[in-house]
Amino acid sequence: MAAAAPRAHRPVHRPLRAQPELGKPRRSSYTLPGPDFTYGLCIRGTDGGVPEAIGHWHAMKPRPPSLRERPRNYIAMNRGALKAGYVTAREFNLYRHVKDIRCKEEDGSRFKKAPPSLPPDMTFGITARPSTPIFDLLQHRYQEVWVEQQRAAAAARQAEKKELQKKKVCETRTTLLRKHPPPVKVDSLWHLPQFQKVAPHLSTFPSRDAHKKAFSVYHSEQPTRCGPLGQGIYIKA
C-alpha cells in the first residue's frame, strides 16, 4: 500500500479552530500577496522631475504682508479727551467713537538696531581654567599657605585684644554722679505765713523739762499699748 502524500497547507478561515504546529507560531487567517508585491504608497512625479527643474526657472512671487488690525491708542485718545474738556466716562466713550486713534505700525524687522561690531579675531565661549600646578600639590604648598594665613589672623586678633585692654574706661557724668552724689537740700514743710512764729496759747506742763520727760515716757510705752498711736490699754503678755 502506497504512503499518503502530505496535504498542502490551506488558508485557515476560522482562526479559533486553527491548531498551532510544533515549533511554529500560530498561522494567521489573512491571505498575503505574493513575493513580487511592493508595500507602500506609490507617488508618481507630476512636476517633470530634474529635467523640468533645470530647463525652467520658477521664481517665487513675494507674498504681500497680511494686514493686521492695529490696536487702539487709548493713551492718545484719553489725552485728547482731557484737552477737549471731557471728564466723565460717557464723554470719554463718545470721544473714542468719534476720534478713533490707532497705534502706529511697528517695523517688521526683528532687530531694532544693528548688531554690535565685533573684532574679526574674537573667540566666543568661556575661557579655559588654568592648569593645576602639580608640583605645589605634591609639596603641600596650599596647606603651608593656609597655616601661615591662620597664624597671621590669630596674631592680628591677639594684638587687637591687647589694644582694647590697654585703653582706659572713660568716666561719664552718670558714673561720676554715682560715685559723688550731690548733697540733697532738705526743704522744710510749707506753712501759711499767718501761722508762722506763733507761740502756743495753752501749756499744761509746769516746765519744759516736765514736757520732755512726759513725751519720752510716752514714746517708750508705745510698743506695749494698743492703737495706731500707741495710746490705748496695755497689751497682755
From TrEMBL:
Residues 7-16 have a biased composition (Basic residues). It comes from the Eukaryota. The gene is CFAP77. It comes from Alligator sinensis (Chinese alligator). Keywords: Cell projection, Cilium, Flagellum. It holds the Pfam family CFAP77. Residues 1-31 are annotated as: Disordered. This is Cilia- and flagella-associated protein 77.
